[in-house]
Design a protein that fits this description.
Blueprint: H1 3-14, H2 16-20, H3 25-45, E1 50-59, E2 64-75, E3 78-84, E4 90-97, E5 100-105, E6 110-113, H4 116-124, H5 130-138, E7 146-149, E8 155-162, E9 165-175, E10 182-190, E11 193-203
């Protein structure tokens, strides 16, 4: 037994109440992070409308796609995603309004239905979980309960199983000069697929 351990045992024998009330530093740290996350989550939950602009890159074994994106969130049931190429031409226009999905790609293929994820899968062959992405985009875990926080109580990494696909989302940075702390860069990983989002601006 080390001298340090012996001293701790002696102190606990002399002061049993104090030792029983001792809280390890790691537990204190986790409690502080949990409180920070709780407050941050409450702030994010109040966001009903916003607009996000930035750059998107999709990387896989078969192809690489680079585009600009514009996400316009009006409310929980109405949002729009526009992807444009580097020349400014529209590559994809997805509009969800009260459960109705309208999507058109750069080749003029048109889809009307009720499931935006199915629409994307048909037109661009990418299993993007849009309902989860809406949450991930602002820094919420969506349906996932498997996530870790950084030192500021914000999500650093989360893992989620969506429709049979396992996703890992890594947050590389956050803007701290916005009304609510929001992501500045994140990466979605699914198998050998990578979707990187570099956010230029938030409009709340």
């Amino acid at each position: 037994m080390s001298g340090y351990s012996y001293i701790i045992i002696c102190l606990c024998l002399l002061f049993p109440v104090s030792c029983s009330m001792y809280t390890p530093p790691e537990a204190i740290r986790n409690q502080i992070l949990s409180e920070k996350w709780k407050l941050h989550k409450q702030s994010l939950s109040k966001l009903s409308s916003y607009q996000v602009r930035g750059a998107l890159s999709f990387l896989s074994d078969k192809k690489k796609v680079f585009a600009r994106f514009n996400w316009q969130q009006k409310n929980d049931k109405c949002y729009r995603l526009i992807l444009t190429n580097l020349l400014g031409s529209t590559e994809l226009d997805l509009n969800i309004n009260q459960g109705t999905v309208q999507l058109i790609n750069d080749q003029g293929k048109y889809y009307i239905g009720s499931n935006p994820e199915v629409a994307l899968q048909k037109l661009i062959n990418m299993p993007i979980p849009l309902n989860e992405l809406r949450e991930w985009l602002i820094g919420l875990p969506g349906s996932s309960t498997n996530f870790t926080l950084n030192s500021n109580g914000l999500i650093y990494v989360l893992n989620s199983d969506v429709n049979g696909y396992f996703w890992t989302v890594v947050y590389h940075g956050y803007y701290e000069n916005t009304l609510v702390t929001l992501p500045s860069s994140l990466e979605l990983r699914q198998g050998n697929n990578r979707i990187k989002l570099k956010i230029d601006s938030w409009k709340l």
